[in-house]
Design a protein that fits this description.
Glutaredoxin, 26 helices, 5-stranded antiparallel beta sheet, alpha+beta, 700 residues
Amino acid sequence: MQKKTPSFVPPFTNHLQHEKSPYLLQHAHNPVDWYPWGEEAFARAKAENKPIFLSIGYATCHWCHVMEKESFEDQSVADLFNRDFVCIKVDREERPDIDQVYMDVCVRLTGSGGWPLSLFLTPDKKPFFAGTYIPKQTKMNRPGLIDYLPLVALRWKEQPERFRERAEQVIEALQSDLEAQTDHALPGVDIFAATTNQLQQRYDAEYGGFGDAPKFPAPHNLSYLLHRFRWTGDSRLLQMVEKTLSAMRLSGLYDQVGFGFHRYSTDRNWLVPHFEKMLYDQAGLAQVYLEGYQVTRDPLFARTAREIFTYVLRELTADKGGFYSAQDADSEGEEGKFYLWNVASINAILGDEDAAFFCELFNLSEEGNYLDESRREKTGQNILYLAERPGPSAKSNNRAPAEIERRIESCREKLSAARKLRTPPLTDDKILTAWNGMMISALAAGGRILNDQSYTVAAQKAAEFILTTVCSPDKKLLRRYREGEAAIDAFAEDYAFLAKGMLDLYRATFNPNHLKQGIDLAEQLAVRFMDPKSGLIFETPKENSELFVRPKNLFDTAHPSTNAITLQLFARLHLLTGKAVWKERSEALLTTLKPSLQSYPAGFTAALQGVALLLEPTREVVLVGDRKSASLTALIETTNQIFAPETSTILQNEAIAQLAPFTQQMAKQRTAVAYICQNNSCRPAVSDPNELAALLTTTP
């Protein structure tokens, strides 16, 4: 009888072992005695009068892995933590409220932030120290944990009141920052010129994008510029967008073999990415490539959106339809290892002739273009990128562009198959409501603009999954789903992004249920999260008081802020339904946001897309006709192909008449028609798609 191999028993197990978060589970067997955020940890800290060490990160964070390997897996560091502190781990993606409050602390105390986020708190959660990555050993006057932990512990025992006083000062400063200031007046349209000027000053004319290294894609900035080009006709704005979209697609920021975008570029010229892939980046970038395609008809932009969807549906989609959060930067303990290539491996996979063609086109060399992070030396490994579009290079090779494209695709498929044999990066398979809302919006836009129903179906499947499964028994929205468990009360961003997703899904399908679902979610957002004094949106509901402040998410970061999406949402609902309450809510939010917006408008480009719906002319297109008729289909397809963000489009029927009463008098005619309404009046009905296109191509 064959002996059973004994199962591996890890030497350490802490209080994270029963969590669902992949990030927390990564740390469940650290020798540090981690607790999840919760009353058990805080009760122990109070009972033993110990300060709290709070560590916030996420599963695909490279520097979180570095700090874990260097310190949290080290017994000598763990002994210091366990002796003098109560240690708490938080997944920032599960608990954006906790992350935002303590990130604001870090920025206030240090001038910057990032992950891992490291803080020391009093037993009642109040912060007295904040930082990001902390090395194990002291280096270059940067204190290491080995030296710092005993010092903090000693001073806490000797003079805890000094830490408590410092913490109170930090909290008072944060609370004063959150006090709303408003002059109860809307900003003027000059805010758009000010924003555009700031973006132009930050624009990198040589490589595209904004600022220096590290360089983030920031799709909401590009979308804003497309909106302003729509109104001003300033070709410089379109050129900024075209150059940036083209540069990112050809660069190392884009996975040239498996598709999808990495999180950001570590250099100015988009060559070396930080290799993790985030769902929200795929969603935002897919949408702006689609908008770019609508404006320019550049086939590369449409192709890029399709490839992003291919990646998401292949790698980040659960069987039930929800979308996973991210893929890690690291595999086998090395950042980027899954994505890098050397010339020998390309030769072995493609053969000499195709390898020579591919290496020349994608700039592979024997010495490589990827540097070892510690030694800053070339490793022989390469990041694939294109110096130019294949079309121009095809001419120099006396080959037709279509032939070059076929050859590239043949090589890419072979490399993709070979790469599947490598150890893949971790997929963070938790499903987050807000990020799913973003991808629902993107796929709905893809289905509509690219006339591909498979994208629309995927968006509908995800929406159904979130609305039926990621919710409590009383049908309140929840934040996270993983391994059969839906948990954590949803935050404002979950309601805002999902509601926007439902409006975008309505626009793609004209299913009135989607519009009603969007309205219901927006109503819950307003009732449960809106500050009755200021009109701004808190991230947590009013019944949630476990933090010392209720955070408000104002500035755009890697993706639009909650208040920006809420402003867009409320303004769009006013145009779609004609109901004044949505205009009142959006204007209340904007008047309070105004001082922050005016102080640095380039930090509010997503919000300004909502502001435009309040300050500039808008119009509504009401389609009337048999949904299955060819004449109505022709009108719908016409509206789908034109970039007209100031225009709301609705299909009149009995259900919609209840949601949008202003459509009730628009009766069906013998052929499908479109009513174009502006300033509370409508033009005579239009039935010719060409006439409709001419009207929509110009601004109101």
